[in-house]
Amino acid sequence: MNEVKHSDLVPMLSAHGVYKSFKTFHSELKVLRGMDIQVQKGEMLGIVGASGVGKSTLLHILGGIDRPDTGKICFEGKDIFQQENGFLEKFRNTQVGFVFQMFNLLADFTALENAMFPALIRGDSRKIAREKAEAMLCEMGLKERLHHKPSELSGGETQRVALARGLINQPKLTLADEPTGNLDAKAGEAFMELIRKLNRERNQTFIIVTHSQKLASSLDRVLQLVDGKLGPLDTNISL
Ligand SMILES: Nc1ncnc2c1ncn2[C@@H]1O[C@H](COP(=O)(O)OP(=O)(O)OP(=O)(O)O)[C@@H](O)[C@H]1O
Ligand SMILES: [Mg+2]
Questions:
Q1: How far is the CA of 50 from the centre of ligand 2 (A)?
Q2: Which residues, judged by CB distance below 6 Å to any ligand atom, belong to the binding site of ligand 1?
């Protein structure tokens, strides 16, 4: 009989009973209402759902950027919100890659510098960070745009810089929020090829929020966020 490893039993990422509300002056908006999820290492998971249902909120909580009101998020068996000081910063910088829906690039820095930041923060030398960022941006078809600032890039180019920045440290877990929303068919296909390669060669795990039927159908599993909970995809909906 094959030996069962501990790492095979514990999901890479899990969430249990997650609630999240936003309080405004007049009311309380209950976004996540008892959300659960388990993601195995090497899985490519899609999350779909209507606009405003809470998909970005969910990704921010899974990646330790925002806190749930109640419930827990475990990464490799550890509750990420119950660790020592400094754990979350290190977790976000060394384990997770983020591709934000609004890109969040720094306006005063070039495409190359923006893509280099996570590598520099992790401790790579400027030379190594620059080489990695250049290679990643070239792979995204941005060889001629390395020294452009975000205001000098098109929407699709900006998105590709954000993708390069999210992937540069080859994180164990990448959380990507509508990563192909601004891309044309060719750039979208190149992104899908790249993440498939990273998944195949390095067993990287991806959780991808998307409205793209094509991207969703290329993933291992797709869950739908409805009424604050994740469940199986209702195949009758259009994304
Ligand atoms: N900081 C906040 N304060 C108050 N309300 C918020 C806040 N952030 C998000 N919301 C509200 O919470 C709900 C969920 O937002 P979220 O951005 O997670 O939706 P989404 O599913 O990602 O939508 P989309 O597909 O349009 O990106 C929305 O109705 C939004 O208006
Ligand atoms: Mg969103």
A1: 9
A2: 22, 24, 29, 31, 49, 51-57, 101
Spatial neighbors of 77 by CB under 8 A, at least 6 apart, are: 10
CA 190 to chain centre: 17
How far is the CA of 123 from the CAs of 94, 119, 193, in angstroms?
Answer: 10, 6, 28
* 34 Cα–ligand 1 center, Å: 17
Where does the pLDDT of residue 26 fall: very low under 50, low under 70, confident under 90, or very high at 90 and above? confident
User: 234 C-alpha vs ligand 1 centroid, how far in Å?
Assistant: 22
| Under 8 Å between Cβ of 159 and 181 | yes
pTM of the model: 0.92
In 3D, which of 198, 207, 203 has the Cα closest to residue 62?
207
- Domains, the chain, in order of start with CATH, read 43-56+85-232 (3.40.50.300)
> What local confidence, expressed as pLDDT, does residue 239 receive?
61
| Nearest residue to 63 (alpha-carbon basis) of 131, 128, 118 | 118
The contacts of residue 160 (CB under 8 Å, 6+ apart) are 137, 140, 141, 142, 183, 187, 191
CA dihedral 138, 173, 213, 52 (to 10 degrees): -110
Instruction: Please name the residues in contact with 156: beta carbons below 8 A apart, sequence gap of 6 or more.
Output: 182, 183, 184, 187
